[in-house]
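Let us work through a complete example step by step.
Step 1: write down the sequence.
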Amino acid sequence: MMERFSEWLAEGDLGRYLLEREQAYFDGAVADAFGYHAVQLGLPGHDFLRANRIPLKLVADPDGPAELACLAEALPFASNSLDLVVLPHTLDFTTHPHQVLREVERVLMPEGRVVLTGFNPWSLWGAKRLAAGRYEVPWRGQFLSLPRIKDWLELMELEPDGGSFMAYAPPFSRGDWLHRFAFMEAAGDRWWPLAAGVYGISAVKRMRGLRLITPTWGVAKKAARGLAVAGGNDRHHVARQAQETDPHDPGPA
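Step 2: predict the structure and record it as tokens.
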């Protein structure tokens, strides 16, 4: 199904309209992610990692001309091995979206990042899905709600730290009609962000219980009070320490 969706993005006016906005979102969301290994799960015909500077990047997909053929539900990567994973509608077109996120959490390193997009069911795009039926892409997708995705992310200790809404125009198949509703793009983020056809969200893998260990400076200062200063008046220091230890000793004459 993802292969057909990839073709849909490149073929018609509506697909190209959506692709342009999602490409812009991914370009901004992954630009500052750092590390050594990045993976895009799905849509091998489109490069959503192009703006990232991580040296080792690949696309994984069970179908199509991907560099690695694998299922998103069973990733062939070691645990804690990837720095960045992008999911362009991967959860919309899998029968096990929760398991896919579990796999992503497993393979991400601590502080690694996942960036994903999904269709918003509470939008004009979601309404068309209900009206048109679920026989063609993209309407065959699951259209998982953003609150549900956030709940899954937080359950897996993937902490959302950014996001965006896009594709506010009604899902017309003709470009001239999309152009007529271009004003909705400019006003959407301000007036009706939750009505966008697509959402994007990024999250970071947090390791609960890890904390930075810092010196206990108060204890260190107390311990240092009984130390002689190198090159200083050691005899006077030792005598003073002995006097403080034994109050009946008058000390040196």
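Step 3: interpret the result. The chain has two domains: 2-205, 212-253.
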